[in-house]
Design a protein that fits this description.
Length: about 130
């Protein structure tokens, strides 16, 4: 099993930055695709970013359109942690942010929450205007 614990959320003003962390426990962390999703009140869970490898064990980062240029996903293999750095936060970024992991995620499935086997409990991000 893989256990995921998010941290780093909080209440901030628009325009500032936050770095969310997702600490993973379990086996084969480096082989897992990692992703961030978010869910605002009354809305469906939506894809934010993913970090997965393709050929030659090279990791690539992928982003939702709203996250491109503002958010960065990266992982520290030694620490078994994946991060989401969010810059220039906007009120519409307010949501519970979840990290997710799976051993079989590809670019074709990375945006689908139902494709992930492991989830953290979420961390609240609230951005005031």
């Amino acid at each position: 099993q893989v256990q995921l614990v998010e941290s780093g959320g909080g209440l901030v003003q628009a325009g500032v930055s936050l770095r969310l962390s997702c600490a993973a426990s379990g086996r084969t962390f480096s082989n897992y695709a990692m992703a961030w999703f978010r869910q605002a009140p009354g809305k469906e869970r939506e894809f934010v970013a993913a970090h997965l490898w393709r050929t030659s064990r090279t990791y690539y980062a992928y982003y939702a359109d709203f996250a491109k240029g503002r958010f960065t996903i990266f992982r520290d293999i030694a620490e078994n942690t994946v991060y989401l750095e969010m810059n220039s936060l906007k009120p519409e970024d307010t949501a519970v942010y979840y990290c997710a992991a799976d051993s079989r995620i590809t670019t074709a499935t990375m945006k689908e929450p139902d494709e992930y086997d492991y989830w953290g409990q979420g961390t609240q991000v609230t951005v005031s205007s």
